[in-house]
Amino acid sequence: MQHTDTLTLYDSQFNSRFLLGTALYRSPAQMSEAIKASGSEFITLSLRRQNPQHNDGEAFWQLIKETGCKLLPNTAGCKSAKEAINLAEMSRELFATDWIKLEVIGDDYNLQPDPFELVIAARELIKRGFKVLPYCTDDLILCLRLRDAGCQVLMPWGAPIGTGQGLLNKYHLQSLRERITDIPLIIDAGLGSPSQAAAALEMGYDAVLLNTAVAKADDPALMAKAFSLAISAGRSAYLAGLMQRRQTATPSTPVLGQPFWHQQ
Amino acid sequence: MLKISVNNRELSVGEDCNLLQLITIAGFAEQKIALAINGEFVAKNLYPTTKLAQRDNVDIVTPIGGG
Q1: Handedness of CA B35, A46, A49, B4 (dihedral sign)
Q2: Is 3.40.50.80 the CATH number for B2-61?
Q3: A54 CB near a chain B CB, below 8 Å?
């Protein structure tokens, strides 16, 4: 079923609620096929030091351009606001876009965002005219501070990057969605299966961003399609309105007229 | 001569070397790049007029897949 509702991020509208990463694929062709199968219109990418002799950046760039997708460069690997701000400036120039997925990592073990540096970087980048999509934890206060800093989209993690653990802290994520209703929220990172993506959308999250679960699947294009269907299903379920959970059973078949029943 | 570092690789360049010349010397001519000196972004339009200094650390980056 096609949805007519669109996702609005800053001043742009998207038909797809699936943001896909471009790393970790076994081959460039596999990446292109997965992006196509996902129906994604917004893909993440990055900048790194590379050997100039290989000129891998140019080949990658050609493939990315062919997708026709909007680009969301990231500041992956940055550990301070200063690093992230400078990498964002480099991305803006090279990719000709104001959009930036802001990552400032505070811990090497679980790649948890550094909330303090994140807010400093977000504030500065917004001042410089960037459209900032911060990768953050599910901490309510952090998210409120990022919104106060001017972020018009927030991207809390489902679980640490690359773990495939899904929505680890449903209570916090649910609270976040209930408290922050005026801007889009995207679950970024930690999703391992389509059912987890569906659950995020059912919870009212506006979109999901993932990479590893698709890139590391035996068949990335098929997995991308599976996620796309799950995201669509989750969104439909949210719009349709989920039933209230109950503690006790309630028969769905009418009790009135039950045969073989006799008053004692 | 100036001793500088490009992407963590030691390089010797002339005293008058600017960033535009350095990009060619480092092998990145005609490539899609962005650049920082000592951690600070330098815009493309400043390459011809930006001179290098002793022990500068230059980062030259190119596009790559990311999540």
Answers
A1: positive
A2: no
A3: no
